[in-house]
Amino acid sequence: MDFFAQQARVRGSSRRLVALFALAVVAIVAAIDAVVWLAMGHHPVDGEPARSNLSLLLASSALVLAGIGLSSLFRIMSLSGGGKTVAESVGAVPVPPDTRDPQLRQLRNVIEEVAIAAGVPVPDIYLMEEEPGINAFAAGYSVSDAAVCVTRGCLDNLSRDELQGVIAHEFSHVLNGDMRLNIRLMGLLFGILVLAIVGRRVIWFGGGRGNRRDGGGGQVWMIGLALIVVGYIGYFFGRLIQAAVARSRESLADASAVQFTRQTDGIAGALKKIAILSEGSELHVANKQEVAHMLFGEAGAFNALFATHPPLLQRIRTLEPGFREEELVRLAASMQQAAGAPSTPAVAGNPVNPRGTPVTASPSPLPAVLAGAVLAQGAGSATDPTRFQRAAAVQQAMPTTLTVAVQQPEPALTVVLALAMSAERELQDAQRRIVADAFGDDVQQAVQTMAVEVATLSPESRLPLAALAFPALKQLSAGRLQTLLGALDALVRADGRVDLDEYCLVRLLRLQLTEAQQPRRAPVDGLKKLPACRSSVMLVCAVVAANGNADEAAARRAWLLAMQQAFPGEALDWSAPPATWQTPFERALDDLDGLMPPAKDLVVQSLASAIHADGVVSVEEAALLRVICASLHCPLPA
Length: 638
Hints:
Elements: H1 3-39, H2 53-78, H3 83-89, E1 93-94, H4 102-118, E2 124-128, E3 136-139, E4 147-151, H5 152-157, H6 160-175, H7 178-206, H8 216-261, H9 265-276, H10 312-319, H11 326-338, H12 368-375, H13 387-397, H14 400-405, H15 409-419, H16 425-439, H17 441-454, H18 462-473, H19 478-492, H20 500-517, H21 534-547, H22 552-566, H23 582-592, H24 597-611, H25 619-632
C-alpha cells in the first residue's frame, strides 16, 4: 500500500470535509434566520418592508456562526493533549508497561513489534475494559503523540495473529495522516450538535415566560425548539459527512494491515469474529458516535446511510476473494465447541450483527484497485516480506534488564543516557561529569551500570530500544526532558565530534519528544514541489551516499543514482558534504518536510536508490534513513 498516496487522499478528504461542513453551516444559519424572522415578527406589514429585518438577520447569523465556530474550537482545544486525551474521553485506561496480565503483555508486545517495524516510536496503549465488543482505534496529531486503544473484547476473543491484524490496521491510520483529520472531525461535529444543546437550555430557562402578557415566552420557546430541530438536522448531515470521510479509508487500512503482517488470516479472522459474536464491534460508551469514524468496526448496528465502514462481508471478501458466508457458520460452531458450549451455530444463513439484523454484502462489485492493493506493494510501503519478523527478533534479542528499565520514566532516562555514552575509556570520565552535573551522582551511577548492559546490544537494536523507551520518557516533566536533551547533546559532543550513530539517536529523541510535548503543533503536509527543494535533496542524498560508502567514487555513483531518480534528465554536479554536515543537513530536512506527499515519495525512492547502489544496506544507512523519514513525517520504506 502506497502510504504517500494515502496521505494525498487524506488531504483531499480534509478539503471535502471543510467544504461539506461549510455547506451544512450555511444551511443551519439560513434555517435559524428564517425561524428568528418569523418568531420575532419582523416581516413585511401592509405591503411595506420591515426596516429591522437586515440587522436582525445579521445578528442571528453572527450568533449562530460564532456559536458553531467557538464550540468546534473549544472541542478541538479540549483534545489538544492528543491521542491520550481522546482515549480517556471514552473511558479507556492506560495499560501498565510492567503489567503481568498475559493478555495485556501480549497486546504490548504486538504494538511494540509493529512500531519497530514501521520505524515509529511506540504509542501510548489504552484499554476499554468494560467493552466486550471487538474494536480499536488510533488517535493523535502525529506519530509522536499517538495512542492505540483496544477493547476488552479484542483481548478475550482474538488470537495473536488476529490482534496483529487489528493493530496493523490502526497503525496505517497513524502513518497516513488520518488521525489529525479524525480529531478535526470530532470538533466539527460537536460544533454542529451544540445548537441542539443550546436549544434545550433555551426552552428550559425561557419557556416559563410564556405566561407573560407580552407573549415573549412563546417566542423564546419557538426559538429553542427551532435550535433543537436544526441542531439535530445538522447532526444528521454531520453523521453523513463522518461516514463519507471514513468509509473509503477503512478499506485502504485493511489492505495496509496485510502488508504489515504479510498474511490475510489475521485481520480477516478478526472481521469474521465480529460477524459471528453477539457483541460484534458495538461500543456501549455514551459518546461512541463521536469516535465512530476512527474505529476498527462499526460503533453500533450497521446502517447503510451512516456506516463509517464498508459492510463486513465486503471487507472480508476484499481480503479473501473466495470467501463464502457458510464459512461463518462452521467457524461459529468450532468456536462454541472449543469453548465447551453446545454445538448449535451462533449464526444461520447470513451472519448477524449485534442488533440481530442480517449483515449483507454490498451488491456492487469490489473495486479492482482494492483487491489488487492487498497483494501489490507500492513504492511507499512501510513493510517488506520479512521486516515484521525482523522487528520481533530484534525486540526478543534485547536484554531483559533493558526492556524492563525502559518501562518507567526515570530508568528509561538512564537507558537513553547510557546509549549516548562512548565506548572509549578516555571520554567516559568527562561524560560521567556531564551526567552528574545535570542529574546528580545517583543518576550518574545508574547510567554507569546501565552502560554495561547497553554495550552488549547489537548496533541495529539501539534505535529500536530508544523507541521502546519513548512512552516512558514522555511522562517526564517538561523541565526534566529539556535537561535530558541538553545532556544528550553534551555527551555526544564530549570528544569534539558527533558520530553518525550519536547524531541519529539525539536527533530522533529531540524531534519526537518535542512534538509529543506540543501535539497540536505537529507539522502538516506541505505544498512545495520537488524542484523548489533541489539543493536540499542534493545535500540529503549526498550525506546518505557519503555515510554508506567507503570511498568518494562509490559515494558519487550512489548519489548520481539518487539524482536520476529525483531529477531525471538533469545534469547535476556531485559535491561531498562538509565535515560538519549536521547543521546544514537539519536545515535541508526542515525544508523537505514542507514537500507535498508525492514529492516526499520521490525523495524516499531516491534515498533508497543511493542506499542500494552497492547492494548492501548497512546499519548506518538504515539508522540515517530512519531519522530522515521521521523528520519528513513519512513511513520508513521497505
